[in-house]
Amino acid sequence: MNAEPSVTKTLADGAPALWFEMRFDFPAQVLWKHLTDPKKLRYWFPCEVDILPRRDATVTFTSPGERPTTGTVLEAEKPFLLAYTWDREVLRWELENDDDGCLLTLTNTIAEMSQASRSAAGWHLTLMGLDDYLHERPLGQNPALWDQYVARYEEQFRG
Predict the structure, then answer these.
(1) What is the rounded distance in angstroms from the CA atom of residue 101 to the CA atom of residue 108?
(2) Residue 21 domain-assigned?
(3) Which structural domain, as residue segments, surrounds residue 63?
(4) In terms of pTM, does the model score above 0.90?
């Protein structure tokens, strides 16, 4: 069975946030490339991303059939930290090497806590897709699992 992210509802700088942790069998330098290279991002990220990992740089997000939106890089410390805005949210990616790979921590500051279960389900499937991509497996981002994960996180966040 493939690894899955652990997900916690939390606060980041006083704002509602989701905190994801997932171990990868690859060093931070490899994950960094998959967080910053548009050619690699297109395979696992929810939309196309054009990013220059430099503080104050513009990030462009393009979804099929929609006008591109932009964000701003808030922090970039290659290969361990990348944070940027996306619409009204902040994504903060932290990478920490260990003996066998690295731990990825994603803090997603969300605009609406009412959307927490949907956001958690989306990032859960997205991070699983990144793991599949890194291991050269077919992407397991099965849309049929969407409702199952939303229900799972609704239950988890109630408790």
Answers:
(1) 22
(2) yes
(3) 6-158
(4) yes
